[in-house]
């Protein structure tokens, strides 16, 4: 279920399990990646 | 009832309507705003959006873009033979695929039907910086302003009563009202104040001239009096470009006639009268 994140410093893909921390560079700012699903909206 | 045009082109119509009640003038206004169908984007499919705006905000902005509408080729979804599923007879599709750095404008919306393109090409949708991406598919459908303001064909659309300015013999041509009038429609001619040639329709009925006249110490009654013709109206109708102003008026009046016929028919059925 864990969604993929992207490290703000080394741009690697990161999976979060317990710690919010990049396992490659130790940076603690992660961006959540946009899912692959197509979003359908009403233009209102 | 009579309509006299002061000016008419695709984007703007100015006319006077005489011999009609306020209720009828308002009916025309409301029909032009809310009952004439136009195209507007309704369904948006977002494949990718890494821009600074949320998907919902983008969809909303797309919906508000005016689209050239040919009412001969498009019908509303509930009257379409496809039953509202979406076919070329009731929907127009657009694709948008842009990568930054760039300001995404309405010209980046590529229509499937070139006759249903956005009215203006330079409407900004969102600014993209380097690396940001936007991939969108949109569907426009025909509907009326009654449902949502994005389907209104009009921008400015309103009326006012035709002004009547009377200057009595008590006028001493002091010129106070001439200075006070915000629209400069009065002038001193000889020993009386008169309305400048052709400027009468510009009067906004603000009555500042009446007050200026009283303040000049003329007595209890002002020499200049502003009133309005109860059955004559000045209309201004501005189109957003989706339809010509003339067609907006035509469609609105046709709508009013259809509604009146329908009412007559229903009343006839109620009273057992067999008139069609």
Automatic annotation (TrEMBL), chain A:
Its main location: cytoplasm. It catalyses: RNA(n) + a ribonucleoside 5'-triphosphate = RNA(n+1) + diphosphate. Keywords: Cytoplasm, DNA-directed RNA polymerase, Metal-binding, Nucleotidyltransferase, Transcription, Transferase, Zinc. GO terms for cellular component: cytoplasm; DNA-directed RNA polymerase complex. Its cofactor is Zn(2+). One of its GO terms (biological process) is DNA-templated transcription. Pfam families: Zn_ribbon_RPAB4 (PF03604). It is found in: Cytoplasm. It comes from the Archaea. Binds 1 zinc ion. The keyword Transferase applies. InterPro entries: RNAP_P/RPABC4, RPABC4/Spt4, Rpo12. One of its GO terms (molecular function) is zinc ion binding. Part of the RNA polymerase complex. DNA-dependent RNA polymerase (RNAP) catalyzes the transcription of DNA into RNA using the four ribonucleoside triphosphates as substrates. This is DNA-directed RNA polymerase subunit Rpo12.
């Amino acid at each position: 279920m864990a969604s993929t994140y992207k490290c703000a410093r080394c741009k690697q893909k990161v999976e979060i399990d317990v710690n919010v921390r990049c396992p490659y560079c130790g940076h603690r700012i992660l961006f959540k990646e946009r899912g692959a699903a197509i979003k359908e909206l009403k233009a209102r | 009832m009579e309509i006299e045009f002061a000016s008419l082109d695709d984007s703007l119509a100015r006319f006077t309507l005489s011999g009609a009640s306020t209720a009828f003038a308002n009916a025309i206004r409301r029909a032009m705003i809310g009952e004439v169908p136009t195209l507007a984007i309704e369904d948006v499919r977002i494949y990718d959006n890494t821009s600074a705006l949320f998907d919902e905000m983008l969809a909303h902005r797309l919906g508000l873009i005016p689209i050239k509408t040919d009412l001969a080729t498009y019908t509303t979804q509930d009257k379409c033979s496809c039953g509202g599923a979406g076919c070329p007879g009731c929907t127009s599709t657009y694709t948008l695929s842009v990568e930054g750095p760039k300001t995404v404008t309405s010209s980046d919306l590529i229509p499937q039907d070139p006759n249903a393109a956005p009215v203006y090409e330079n409407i900004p949708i969102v600014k993209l910086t380097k690396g940001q991406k936007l991939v969108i598919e949109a569907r426009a459908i025909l509907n009326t302003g009654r449902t949502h303001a994005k389907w209104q064909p009009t921008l400015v659309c309103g009326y006012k009563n035709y002004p009547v300015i009377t200057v009595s013999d008590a006028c001493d041509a002091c010129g106070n009202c001439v200075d006070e009038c915000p629209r400069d429609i009065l002038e001193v001619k000889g020993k009386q104040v008169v309305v400048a040639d052709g400027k009468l329709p510009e009067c906004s009925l603000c009555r500042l001239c009446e007050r200026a006249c009283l303040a000049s110490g003329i007595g209890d009654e002002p020499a200049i009096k502003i009133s309005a013709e109860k059955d004559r109206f000045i209309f201004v109708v501005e189109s957003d470009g989706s339809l010509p102003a003339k067609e907006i008026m035509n469609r609105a009046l046709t709508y009013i006639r259809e509604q009146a016929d329908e009412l007559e028919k229903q009343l006839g059925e109620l009273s057992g009268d067999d008139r069609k």
